[in-house]
Amino acid sequence: MSKALYHIEQVSNCILVTLRGEWSESTNIQYLAALSEYLKRRRGRPFILLVDMRTWQIPKSETFNQIKAPFKLDRRNQLYEIWLECEGTDADHVAEKMRLEAKTPLERTHSVSQFLASCADKTDNKALAHITAWVENESVDKQN
Predict the structure, then answer these.
(1) Is residue 84 a contact partner of residue 52, using CB atoms and an 8 Å limit?
(2) CB count, 10 Å around CB of 4?
(3) Torsion angles phi and psi, residue 65, rounded to 5
(4) Beta strands of the chain (E only): which ranges?
(5) Most C-beta atoms within 10 A of its C-beta, which of 38, 101, 121, 136?
(6) How far is CA 45 from CA 14, 34, 75, 91, 126, in A?
(7) What is the mean pLDDT of the segment spanning 1-17?
(8) pLDDT (tens digit, 9 = 90+) per residue, 35-85?
(9) pLDDT digits (tens, 9 = 90+) for 100-127
């Protein structure tokens, strides 16, 4: 993913999201708009959201929280969400907001193997092969 702070792609019924680096309010607005467009393209078809947020740094400010408020993602057909985090990811407030707004099960893990095992339970073999390559390609170790 080189220097991009986020990347979104679709594989089968999965939307793969990579989040990296230190974000500003502007980055967050751009990301939420892009994700909203991906969700609209699903046109009512069920999907699973897989997020690799290792090394993601979320701004903490009142302004940031106010800017997030107007964005309402259409999660009606979302079946599940899985987050791959690192020890330094501080996304508890994002998870809490999601739990309040969405009725989608959320699984969070720091383990690549646990992330892939959860994906294996919810996707087909072709999608899983792509997801495995995606996670391994985005390895935090390779970026440092």
Answers:
(1) yes
(2) 10
(3) -65, -35
(4) 6-11, 14-19, 21-22, 47-52, 56-57, 78-84, 106-109
(5) 38
(6) 11, 18, 11, 27, 19
(7) 86
(8) 999 999 888 899 999 999 998 987 665 555 555 555 678 888 999 999 999
(9) 777 889 999 999 999 999 999 999 999 9
Residue 71 backbone zone (phi > 0: left; psi -120 to 50: alpha; other: beta): beta
Name 52's Cβ contacts closer than 8 Å, sequence gap at least 6: 16, 17, 18, 19, 84, 115, 134, 135, 138
Q: CA 56, 62, 63, 69: dihedral to nearest 10 degrees? A: 80
The pTM score is 0.86
pLDDT digit string, tens, across residues 126-140: 999 999 999 998 765
| φ/ψ of residue 79, rounded to 5 | -90, -35
The residue count of the chain comes to 144
